[in-house]
């Protein structure tokens, strides 16, 4: 006789010994029928909800707040924005020519990326990316001249 109770890898349900006739070996049997897993239902927004979502996005509400309000994912929010032909915030938050001129002048005069970022309310990496994209020659980091 082989004892399998407690030795099964990853059992799906707890097993109990059956007292049903014909189970004389004492082998374990499932105590209940298999349970079907129900997939979560996707949230579909009504047209008025989509309009409200887009209005909130345009007003500058945070994505996580919109996601929680409407019970949808970030991808769904951005798909609605894309379908409406609205620019994504990352695309619309670039610098104007005046801002780029100010930032490149400051950088050319020796200001750090962090100082420029504080002025515009963005991170130093974002400043570096925007200056590089605009073709502004960037200084190497201190101590990195020979690398």
Description:
This protein folds into 3 domains: 1-33, no CATH class; 47-92; 97-133. It has a two-stranded antiparallel ribbon with strand order 1-2. With 147 residues, the protein is mostly helical. The protein is elongated, with a radius of gyration of 30 Å. It contains 7 helices and 2 strands, in the order ββααααααα. The model has no long low-confidence stretch (mean pLDDT 79). 44% of the residues lie in helices and 4% in strands. Helix 6 packs across helix 7 (124-133). The chain has helices at 47-58, 63-70, 74-83, 89-92, 97-108, 113-120, 124-133, and strands at residues 15-17, 28-30.
SSE-based structural type: mainly alpha
Low-confidence stretches: none
Overall, the morphology is: elongated
Mean pLDDT level: 79
- What order do the strands of the largest sheet run in, or round the barrel if closed? 1-2
Number of strands: 2
Describe the main β-sheet briefly: 2 strands, antiparallel
Instruction: Please compute the radius of gyration using only Cα atoms.
Output: 30 Å
**Share of helix, binned:** 40-55%
Number of helices: 7
Number of domains: 3
Q: Order of helices and strands, N to C?
A: EEHHHHHHH
% residues in beta strands: under 5%
Write the layout of secondary structure elements.
Elements: E1 15-17, E2 28-30, H1 47-58, H2 63-70, H3 74-83, H4 89-92, H5 97-108, H6 113-120, H7 124-133
Antiparallel strand pairs: 1-2
Helix pairs in contact: 6-7
Quick structural summary:
The chain has seven helices and two strands, in the order E-E-H-H-H-H-H-H-H. With 147 residues, it is mainly alpha-helical. The chain has a two-stranded antiparallel ribbon with strand order 1-2.
């Amino acid at each position: 006789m082989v004892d399998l109770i407690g030795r099964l890898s990853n059992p799906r349900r707890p097993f109990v010994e059956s007292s049903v006739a014909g189970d004389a070996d004492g082998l374990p049997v499932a105590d209940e029928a298999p349970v079907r897993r129900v997939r979560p239902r996707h949230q579909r927004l009504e047209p008025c909800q989509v309009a409200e979502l887009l209005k909130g996005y345009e007003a500058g509400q945070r994505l996580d707040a919109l996601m929680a309000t409407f019970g949808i994912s970030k991808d769904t929010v951005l798909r609605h924005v894309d379908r409406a032909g609205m620019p994504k915030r990352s695309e619309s938050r670039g610098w104007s020519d005046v801002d780029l001129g100010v930032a490149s002048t400051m950088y050319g005069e020796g200001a750090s990326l962090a100082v420029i970022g504080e002025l515009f309310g963005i991170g130093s990496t974002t400043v570096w990316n925007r200056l590089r994209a605009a073709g502004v020659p960037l200084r190497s980091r201190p101590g990195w001249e020979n690398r």
